[in-house]
Design brief:
Rossmann fold; homohexamer; four-stranded parallel β-sheet; 10 strands
Chain lengths: 248, 248, 248, 248, 248, 248
């Protein structure tokens, strides 16, 4: 199967990191295509960054549709553009926050999230509520590291994530930790060992959920509110979205 | 005060309709500037349309910031890009769905929404949950009319909205009706009379809420998760968002 | 417009304080009539005080109806008698707790309340739940000052409110503070400056919401559960409520 | 034990009906004192009626305190003044809506309420939410009979209640029915037989809960938010509430 | 009335303790039969212990049915097998966690639970949510004492429970404490005095609720999802459950 | 990997059906071992059946542990004994209701459940609430067919399920249907085609989720409330559970 792994930001290093983590975990028959939008923010750390990145995500979905993609992953912990993306395809589309929450709730009764910046905690809280996991998550914690520090100052960043994870283990009454950033995709093993709790990371979780859905021949429902958008005109720089019609 | 009324879609006729409705309701000192993005969908009827439109909304906020705007309204019932827009300014930013829900909850204990297409009901449901009004809304009903029919085939559209409103009054145990589309901004009086219930329309409600906040000298909090986004690089077609820094 | 501002307690000093704060914030055409019941508690600090005060509130509404009032405010943070008051009039009726919660949710994603006594926190919690803001409020904090100390020992009281507000800013992950007592109506500017967060005060917020609703020609729905009460006999000291019939 | 059964309205016939139903169900050692306020509405069918009646309830509690009462019941389905009443005494105070909901949830997983007028359904909904039973109640149904018709036109009223109960049984997927009016206290057996479901009536349920709490030596907590109100001045017609101090 | 008090574990000493506490609190006409399953865990401290114990509970119900029992109590704080037990009888069946939560919510607005081991807190949390008391309980606290230490090392155990209760009183903003283990049935008076808050204990609470329901002639609804199970074959060691048919 | 698929009932035909469905969907390296308890009910249609079956589930987990199992599935739609089973192993344990809900929420925003008997709908409702999917499920519908009719009178049963599914599609505003019984494991394709909506079946969904978790090296957390149970004595027929200690 073709699995398009969309890094919604435009930092190639992070796309590579994510792509490698996904490839390592993928089943033999899964072909990972790690991509990033042609345009957008170099990291996503605010609602504004998310709003801009969401458009690039849609373009990556449309590109994937032209290539016969079997499943998509949106590899940013805010799941930017997720429901929009689902409208564009019959294939499953998985967000990494969503994937991590689902998996964490299957191996523990309560978990905490360790994310990058405190200001993005509200994004996680809104997603937890929308997806149904508000009561499974004890606390959204922030290590207060900018996303790109994960690339540029990895060691210090990891140390802070581990510290926060240990505090979560000691104080939150939890069974598992969810890593709250796509850029942490290669840190799971190290953090798991250092904290001593199961650590759920979204990119890898999403790869496995995508494979699961494809294996079940389940794709995004085209009945009701996730049906293909009604074709219409778009103007200006978004004119290329005009008259979109589904592949089949 | 300068009130920038952003129609997130790119249909000039709808911008005009909305702008006129806003101007009629505005206080003497309120100067309404009705705008629309340079690029985007001609109507918003899906998550995808919303995701694209949300970028245009941000650009309209940035334009407003350069002109010393006192308050903003996002005039599409899905409130696209609302939290992102709030990050970009110290001024208040009001979504019309939000505005209508707040006002309806002040004059009735329970209300229903009458929107355009059934497929967008999920957007209203998600907003009701996030804003806290899930239990105040009995039902989200759809008249099943495409948004632009409000412009092009007004009479038939109004008849269907009135029908649905009457059903809501008869069946839902409610005290008020919320109109679920910016394009209905000029229909309030007609529907109110025909249905015989208070009808809350979001554009007008938002104008009054924006005036209220400005009168209270309350603007979007810049402490915590709605602070200005961290300046950063954007690439490609979104390069103009690079290094954004707040006006003051 | 005539705006009847009802202080539910019988302390004339507080009625004056509230009336002045309301007058300062009111739009040019808004005529504030600050009143208080002829009978009731000198301050409201318990469910019992609220229950007694709620009757005086109704009488003030009925007095207002005879005078052609355009909107009412109930200026005690527990919103005593709010739904009952709404039944008595076609005009909008706004509680100050309600007003403050609505406004705070428009400028921040999460807020905390700073109220007077810890024992009244449960009143705020019940209102937050009923109005839909339970998840928007991180914490209801008490400065542990009796209500009338705001009148009599203002400086010390303000110092404690500011202390509690600073703790809220430091610990609660919030963007705004709601002041939890009508008697704080004249302290907003001072507390805002001292704490460094937007501070939402209910009396002023309610004035602006009332003006907004009147501007929208929206009044309390008379369809359904807020319709005028069925006229009936009342006995004894409440005989004057017998056979109430709506003004028109 | 002395059990003061407070009918919050001032219709002596209903006080008698309720008192008889309570006496029939009471344990041998329970002495029922059925009372009604000296002043107030002859029936309670709105928030306004409730607000006025709540004051009479407090006076009945205070009268009871002077007589050494062991437990109180507030015998109107909206539980008017319940939390205020709890502040005034160390004895338990039970509302009949509350009592019925608790008991119904012990014998069924889901129940429906059959009340008098549709306009009071919102009162039941608010109580269900506050008490925690929102998900246990499938539906609040109204037979659309004024409260005093239960006294004056009993047969027709009962027929409508039975009809509504049968519809509830057929449509709601429930295991029990809650009768939503104190005036139905003597109808339990007849409705149970006619509908063929367990029928929970609040007056009788409250008598048994009050006996249970007294048997457990559990009374209203005087620690925290239900502590005795701070003594203070009341003015005018409520002057007699001034300087209230607990019996001991 | 015959009240069968089922201790779901197989420690005779605890059955005796519970039975004595129940007998002390029971009304004159209530005959307490304290029993325990023939097979099962000696204490219940995990989901696994609960799952095994739940079968013994059913057998005790069936034994009770043969003897003409009027009401049942399941005397373990996780209420193991409660809904299953209800299916087997027309009599009321009360769990002690359930009983304690109901009673605590009648005498306070907020309470905390003090239980034995932290690992069982999740069981209490799930029950609080299912029964509707999630918002009434501020916190589930654990004294971290194994259940049988209550029997074997009573003094030390009580000291820890009292410590935790005092912390709850000081920190949780509560009006009452719920004891979270059947084995604490004889400690209520001591803990109440030491902590200085009303203390609600489940075994005694359940006895009084059972008497209340029997007094009301209310039993488990046999309409809908608590109807007698459809008779069917059981195999192997559970063959004796085959073809169960209700007593009447 | 070794995947132990536990049919909690003792009908060998259903174990075979489920095993075949699982085997068809399993990845090449997954070895399905379909088992059933040595003792228990021949079908599960009530809380009572569930309570008995849950013990057999535990024994199958313990048997699996002795054989080096990598993951477990509990193949009855009520997920009987799920949390208990998780305590007994480091491997993941998945319930089929849980699996189906998770998967359905990834391909649609709202779904309905079609189950066998109306009386078991409450079981699904409780699970939806506990797992967090209460708002994602519009309605739990019953085809009113006994479980074993799926084996014995397959054609008629399927026809009724399809009818109910079509009603769900027409009335519920959903994007997907969840099949609410393990015995429907081989009907997915037929129902999908007949109804014209994505149909999520729990056995197959659970196989894929189990493979996903094993692929991620994520097993049940042994920190906190799902840790191995404390070893202890069990008496009588459950003596073999005494002194359980984890495999490693």
């Amino acid at each position: 199967m073709q699995l398009r792994l969309i890094n919604p930001n435009t930092t190639a290093g992070m796309t590579a990191t994510i792509g490698e983590a996904a490839t390592r975990i993928a089943a033999p028959g899964t072909h990972i295509i790690a991509t990033q939008p042609a345009a957008g923010p170099v990291s996503i750390e605010s609602h504004f960054d998310e709003a801009v990145a969401a458009v690039g995500v849609q373009e990556e979905i449309l590109a994937g549709e032209r290539e016969g993609t079997d499943a998509y992953i949106i590899a940013c912990f805010g799941d930017p553009g997720l429901l929009a993306a689902r409208e564009l395809t019959r294939a499953p589309v998985i967000g990494i926050a969503e994937a991590a929450f689902h998996m964490a709730s299957l191996i523990s009764t309560r978990f905490s999230v360790v994310t990058t910046l405190g200001r993005t905690a509200i994004i996680a809280e809104h997603l937890l509520a929308q997806y149904g996991f508000a009561h499974h998550c004890r606390r959204v914690r922030a290590a207060e590291i900018p996303v790109l520090d994960l690339e540029e100052d990895g060691e210090a960043a990891v140390a802070r994530i581990i510290d926060e994870g240990r505090r979560a283990k000691a104080e939150d009454g939890i069974g598992a930790i969810v890593l709250g950033c796509g850029g942490m995709a290669d840190l799971t093993a190290e953090i798991t060992e250092a904290v001593g709790l199961p650590v759920v990371e979204g990119v890898t979780a999403a790869v496995k959920l995508a494979e699961a859905l494809v294996g079940l021949r389940l794709g995004t429902s085209k009945h009701g509110d996730l049906a293909f958008p009604r074709p219409k005109a778009f103007t200006g720089r978004f004119e290329h979205f005009s008259g979109l019609t589904p592949a089949a």
